[in-house]
């Protein structure tokens, strides 16, 4: 099997709100998450990112740990409200200085900065004017913010992601009412999905222009989408059809406009029947069609298994935020599909199906539908309540197993010609889980919340270090060891 490409980006990710803390420091404006997480009953036991891992004040220590781990690249996001406290207007020099210093520090250790512009923390000032629903305001505000970041950091940053997981911030924010702004209205969610696509396209256009003018490095720009491939639980035509609808809604509806400049007819017709199609103005689809993405970032954690859902079947449900395995009820859309448990698959304590071949299968589906566009895994990892040994060592073998299996399927995809150029484990350090607080850990580095946020590398840190040092060869050794034992 062909190995990982020579210049493969072995990386790890974080996001501003989840890791930085310092939510009111140095002139930062409030984001929608700063406000929402302070409202009673919105997050797990009232947790928030006010302090998080205090990465804002400890980034030099964190970058040193990244370097010892051997990271080739670090994916982080910029907090829009640090750069523009009011969303638009005059930039905040302290915000620009923070990211500038972070980038310089990374480059000092030969770690490639991989920058996300928007990981869900919209400036509250923009939300107060309608946020993502105010097309006239938000498309140009995002493009302006993006342009400022390109101008300030584009002399050193070669990889850019416009938006993280569009499906999640829109559907959880506007359909399910679980993220800010806490709206429950499918029609509004679908309207927003189109506006967000336009914002992405305008930001890419700003980037291309600055590159053409020779003002910034000629790098790569794309978007990070969640990949949640669906699999029918049986081969009956009803379940297969259910899966088709699910994929149309949760996959193609978000990838097609960005990669093909159109919306999938099956789902367009479905939303039309409900009176929920978005307002598409003349020129919108041309703009999307003419937007070239250099790559697609994939956030993959799990796959979904589907069955037909009768007209009086289950609807939307609460999500497991306790870490009690089996507490996630079935959910779906009556007369279309429901998400069901596959008894042959292992599940995490949060009821996420561990299905590494789903990542491989999903990448193949992307290639089949959109051609051979370069791919990068921008997130993949295991959320768990990590055990601490009496020696103080953080034991996270289950995370090692999880990442190992996914990397092996990545290698298989590469061997079959999928242009996968990097893998970013989620997350570099323990950070805030939006709705699960600090109980759900993902990091290679443990943060002792009871001991002044002291950092400690976990078992997985040393394991990933070896994977990087051996360029993936140690993966097979450890797998053989597991197979022998
Ligand atoms: C992705 C997000 O959806 O999943 C991350 O991009 C998030 O920001 C991660 O933390 C894991 O989700 P959760 O809910 O387990 O924290």
Task: Kindly describe this structure.
- This protein is α/β, with parallel strands linked by helices and 485 residues long.
- It has one domain: Alpha-Beta Barrel (TIM Barrel), CATH 3.20.20.
- The chain contains 16 helices and 18 strands.
- The chain has helices at 16-19, 32-36, 55-69, 80-83, 93-108, 124-127, 135-153, 166-175, 186-212, 237-259, 265-273, 284-289, 356-370, 397-415, 459-469, 473-484, and strands at residues 9-13, 73-77, 112-118, 159-164, 220-226, 230-232, 295-299, 304-307, 331-333, 337-340, 346-347, 353-354, 375-379, 387-388, 394-395, 420-426, 445-448, 454-457.
- A hairpin with a 5-residue loop joins strand 14 and strand 15.
- Helix 3 (55-69) runs parallel beside helix 5 (93-108).
- The chain is globular, with a radius of gyration of 21 Å.
- The structure holds 6-O-phosphono-beta-D-glucopyranose (BG6).
Layout: helices, strands, pairs:
Layout: E1 9-13, H1 16-19, H2 32-36, H3 55-69, E2 73-77, H4 80-83, H5 93-108, E3 112-118, H6 124-127, H7 135-153, E4 159-164, H8 166-175, H9 186-212, E5 220-226, E6 230-232, H10 237-259, H11 265-273, H12 284-289, E7 295-299, E8 304-307, E9 331-333, E10 337-340, E11 346-347, E12 353-354, H13 356-370, E13 375-379, E14 387-388, E15 394-395, H14 397-415, E16 420-426, E17 445-448, E18 454-457, H15 459-469, H16 473-484
Parallel strand pairs: 1-2, 1-16, 2-3, 3-4, 4-5, 5-7, 6-8, 7-13, 13-16
Antiparallel strand pairs: 8-10, 9-10, 11-12, 14-15, 17-18
The chain binds 6-O-phosphono-beta-D-glucopyranose.
């Amino acid at each position: 099997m062909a190995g990982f490409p020579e210049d493969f980006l072995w990386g790890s990710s974080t996001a501003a709100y989840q890791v930085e803390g310092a939510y009111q420091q140095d002139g930062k404006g409030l984001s929608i998450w700063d406000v929402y997480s302070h409202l009673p009953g919105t997050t797990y036991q009232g947790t928030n990112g006010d302090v998080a891992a205090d990465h804002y004040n400890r980034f030099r220590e964190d970058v040193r740990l990244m370097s010892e781990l051997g990271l080739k690249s670090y994916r982080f996001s910029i907090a829009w409200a640090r750069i523009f406290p009011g969303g638009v207007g005059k930039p905040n020099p302290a915000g620009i200085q923070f990211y500038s210093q972070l980038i310089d520090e990374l480059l000092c250790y030969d770690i490639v900065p991989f920058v996300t512009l928007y990981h869900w923390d919209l400036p509250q000032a923009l939300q107060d004017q309608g946020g993502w629903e105010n097309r006239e305001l938000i498309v140009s505000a995002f493009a302006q913010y993006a342009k400022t970041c390109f101008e300030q950091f584009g002399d050193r940053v070669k990889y850019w992601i416009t938006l993280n997981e569009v499906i999640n911030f829109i559907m959880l924010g506007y359909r399910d009412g679980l993220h800010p702004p806490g709206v429950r209205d499918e029609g509004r969610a679908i309207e927003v999905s189109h506006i967000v696509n336009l914002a992405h396209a305008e930001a890419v256009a700003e980037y291309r222009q600055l590159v053409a003018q020779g003002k910034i490095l000629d790098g790569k720009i794309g978007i990070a989408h969640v990949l949640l491939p669906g699999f029918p639980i049986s081969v009956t035509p009803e379940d297969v059809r259910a899966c088709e609808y699910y994929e149309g809604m949760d996959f193609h509806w978000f990838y097609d406009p960005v990669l093909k400049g159109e919306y999938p007819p099956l789902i367009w017709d479905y939303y039309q029947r409900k009176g929920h199609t978005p307002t598409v103005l003349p020129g919108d689809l041309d703009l999307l069609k003419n937007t070239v993405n250099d790559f697609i970032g994939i956030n993959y954690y799990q796959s979904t298994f589907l069955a037909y859902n009768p007209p009086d079947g289950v609807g939307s449900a609460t999500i497991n935020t306790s870490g009690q395995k089996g507490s996630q009820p079935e959910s779906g859309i009556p007369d279309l599909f429901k998400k069901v448990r596959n008894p042959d698959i292992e599940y995490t304590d949060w009821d996420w199906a561990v299905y590494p071949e789903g990542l491989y299968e999903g990448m193949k589906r992307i290639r089949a539908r959109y051609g051979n566009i370069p791919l990068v895994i921008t997130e993949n990892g295991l959320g768990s309540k990590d055990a601490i040994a009496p020696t103080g060592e953080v034991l996270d073998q289950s995370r090692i197993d999880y990442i190992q299996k996914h990397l092996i399927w990545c290698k298989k995809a590469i061997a079959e010609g999928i242009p996968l150029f990097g893998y970013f484990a989620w997350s570099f350090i323990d950070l805030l889980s939006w709705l699960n607080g600090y109980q759900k850990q993902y990091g290679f580095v443990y943060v002792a919340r009871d001991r002044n946020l002291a950092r400690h590398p976990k078992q997985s840190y040393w394991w990933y270090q070896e994977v990087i040092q051996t360029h993936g060869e140690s993966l097979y050794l450890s797998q053989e060891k597991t197979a022998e034992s």
